[in-house]
Write the structure tokens for this entry.
Amino acid sequence: MRVALCQIDTTVGDFVGNRERIVSAAELALAQGAELAVFPELAVCGYPAEDLLLRKSFLAAHDASLVELTKAVPRGIDILVGCLEANDDAAETGGRELHNSVVLLRDGTARIIARKCLLPTYDVFDESRYFEPFQKPEQNVFELAGTKIGVVVCEDSWNDEQFFGRRAYAIDPVARVVEAGAQLVVNLSASPWARGRHTFRARMVAAAAERHGVPMIYVNQVGGDVELQFDGGSIAAKAEGIAAQPIAFAAAVTVVDTEQPWSEELVEPELVMMQHGACVQGIRAYVQKFGFQKVVIGLSGGIDSALVATLAVDALGADNVTGIGMPSSYSSGHSVSDAEQLANNLGITFHNLSIAPLQEAFAAVLEPVFAGTEAGLAEENLQSRARGVLLMAFANKHGNLLLTTGNKSECAVGYCTIYGDTNGALAPIADLWKTEVWQMSRWLNRDGERIPANSIEKPPSAELRPDQLDSDSLPDYSKLDPVLRCLVENELSVEDTAARTGMPRAEVGRLFQLVQNSEWKRYQYPPTLRLSDRCWRGRRMPVSHRYREQ
């Protein structure tokens, strides 16, 4: 059987656009001789629709769009599409009113042939809030051209006890559909990307093909939805190998023949390349899906703003990116020159707006209430907030979106100013540790200098007071980041973190207190592109609490 893996970019609630993408991909699949076209989870309405699923008008619009889709798709090809379905038993059982389902479209007819069984309620997922889990996966099997096909949805494949070493749910839907006679298993998925997720998924699918002895086809959504980045990475696997290399961060229609040998070995892409792809897709999707074209970035001459500007150029083109340097009375000469050099390297528009006059004006206005106090944090934060005012004014005047330039390390310990450098519509690198920022910057320079070498090599500094360096109050980032990974991403104790990293326990405790004390800042932080398994959106800590680890 010739099966098309239709990896498309959907937008939540864009029923017309989603329908057009499905029809276009189905026509392409038919032209390439496919007998079956498989689309991602909830492709009709887009994923994740969140509390729109509680609105009757949204559900009605979905159902109307599905009717139109049934009429519009080409004849002569069977199509599997993720959709919503009313749970008719909800009133009697007290369950959720919806199923996360799969519809089979065939020559002008539509029939629900599968329902999602396992509903993730962890990390960034909250599907139990909306959907009723299906308890009979063995019924998710249908026959096409003499072949029995088992259908599972995303999380349904994530409970293979032999692969994971344990079970997270009571049933294994993949095993159930195979036991029910499935000779081919397809998975319709909307699985967001995170560090290493692409390789893990591919290995999981390959392991299932080997274990069950049937071909496995996994079709994943692509595209950005604010923080979540869907990489696609759709794959077809048999015990002997895969049919073709997965395509990441791009829409694609890949046709495979289940009767042909699949013996290709998976080629694992570099992590930094995938991180770059996620950042570029995330910036582009956020800007375009909100109806904008251009972005503005505050350029300090440092590595973080340089990386964000470079990613923005890769996402939107140099003509759509503006950098603004805003030196203060404490800024070094290289702050301006490095920012100018970056702008020249990237070919973006650059403006230099000194905040020194604003510092003087603020000092004069505040003198009556600041008199008799020593200069300190308040004055330092005023510089950041003055820059934020200028950037937002430029963004408003010229219809730009402001990108925030903070990284995960400083966000973790609270080294950011609320209403200052935290201003912005999107934080592209706030899920990248500082050491990863350097790594990606050097990778971007692999074919020639884009980011000035001085921005990469010079010691990090906020330059809010004379001769200030990050190392005045924080360990070197090569030592800090492993500790923060333990505390934030792995939720290890202070004791275990100290043992694992070799940092003195007292210093780990101090850093953990900084992390805890900064929760309120992260609560107000701009949306952050998810690049790790433990992003800020998925880490649900109380903003106000008194727990302190001893």
